[in-house]
Amino acid sequence: MKKNILIVIFIVVGMILALKFNDHNRNKSISACLVAQKMESEKKAEKFDINKAKKLCEKIIKKK
Fold first, then answer.
1. Into how many domains does the chain fold?
2. Which of 37, 33, 59, 36 has the alpha carbon at shortest distance from 48?
3. How many angstroms separate the CA atoms of 35 and 3, rounded?
């Protein structure tokens, strides 16, 4: 009985941690995408629009 309770507690804690860090990982991915977009726009000598790039990056990350 105690073993089953410990397993359930372990699973619940694991799920909470996974959900908490999921948002953090998505934000890091979006930040990395923004940096790549900025570097790409500098290579092409284009004007960099942060809002447009952020929307594009969020769309790309959400697809994955």
1. 1
2. 37
3. 48
Question: In angstroms, rounded to a whole number, what is the distance separating the alpha carbons of residues 42 and 53?
Answer: 13
Residue type, 35: V
Output the pTM of the full model: 0.64
- pLDDT tens by residue, 2-47: 788 999 999 999 998 888 887 788 889 999 999 999 898 888 888 8
- Give the structural domain span for 39: 24-64
Which of 35, 26, 36 has its CA nearest to residue 58?
26
Half-sphere exposure of 40 (CA within 13 A, CB side): 9
In a domain? residue 43:
yes
